[in-house]
Amino acid sequence: MSIRLSCPSCNSAFALAALPDSRRATCPRCGDVFPIRTYTEETDDGPQSPATSAGAKNASRTQGEGRRMLGVLVAAAFLILLAGFPPFLALLKPPKNKPQPPVPLSATAKSPSQLSALGYLRADCNIVFAVQPGPLLAYAERTKQQPRDVLAQTGLPDAARNTIEQLGVELAQIDHIAGGVTLGEGEDAFRLALVLVLKQPLANEDEFLTKLKAKPVAGKKSHHDVLVGKIPLLLTRVSPTVWVFGFNDKDLDAVDKGGHGPGGTHLRGLQTMLAAVPPDASVWLAADDERDWTQKPVMKLVGQSAEAKKWLPAVKDGRGGLVAVSLGEQPRVKVQVRAADDKTGDRVRAYFAASATETASATSGGSGTIAHFEAPFDGANSGKLLQRFLSDAGN
Asked: How much is the pTM?
C-alpha cells in the first residue's frame, strides 16, 4: 500500500511507497522538506480515505470496548481535575517553543576580514555597511542609553536602523548584519542585498517567516517573498544562522555561488575603504566608486530634494568615504575621504587638521587623494560633528 501527498510549497502531488518513520517527505519538484500531516492511502483498488482503511475495518469489532474505555478515562480525568493534579494541568497548556540558552554578549568586535556576511554581497557594490550588535549593546548598557539611540549617534542612516528593527530578531541574537547597495545604470541603477548572520539558529523559523509575511517561491527551495516594512524583498535561507535578502535573484547571485568567503575580498571597488575600517569598529559605512556620483540616475533623482542640494555639490569632488565607530573601552569615530584629485585631497586634509585642533585627542592625516580624521566618540556630540562635516563640505 502506498500513500499520496501534496507539497505545501508548490502544491505538486506525488506518491511514496510507504509512510516514512520520520513522517517527513521531500518534494521531487521543488526540493522542499516538510512534515507529513495529511495523506491518502492507495491500494490496487484505488485511493482509500482513512475511514475505509484497514484500521476502520476493525472498528465495529471494538466499539463496545471503546465506549467502556472512554467512560473510564472520562471518570479518571474528572477526578484528576478535582484534585488539581499539576502534571495533568501542565498537559492542558499549549506547547511552547523549546527555550534556548541565553546568548552570550560579546563586547569585542570582529574586523571586516572576519565578517562572513560580506561574502554574500554583490561584487559590484559601491556602498556597504555593517553592524555588530554585541559591542553596541555593551556600550548602551555602560552609558545607560537605548541601543537605537546609540545607532543614531553613530551616523547610520535611518533606513538602515529601521530595517534592522523590522527583521523581528532581537539584537542580542544577531552576530552581525551587512548590507550592500549598488548604484549603477539601467537595470542595475539600484540593487540591494542584506545579510543577517545569527549567533545561533532561530527558536522558531516559522514565527520569523510569519512576521515577514513570507510566501514560499514555487520551484525554489528555501526562497520566500517577504515584506520588510513595506518593501517587498526576496529572502533565501543559506543555513540556520545565515539569511540573505534582496530585490530579486540578481541580488542573490553570490548565494548561488556558495558565497565568496569572509572579508568581502570580491568587493574590488571598496578595498581601499575596507582596509581603512578599524579592526574594532562595530558600526561602519563605506562607499567608493571611480565615477562621478552625481551622474548616477539615483543620485540625480535624490538631488531634487532641498536637503540633498546642500551637500550634492561636494559629492562631485569625492570618490569615496568611510564613517566607522568603535565602541570598546575607548570609543572612537573615524572619517575618511577619497577625493577626486590631489588638490581636493589637500583641501580636505586642511579642513580636518583645523577640526582636530578644536576637538580633544583628535588626529588627522592622509596623503594624495586620501584624508582622514579620528576623534573620541561622544554620543552627544559625535553625530553633530558628522553633520557639521557634511554641511561644511556642501559649502
From this structure: 0.71
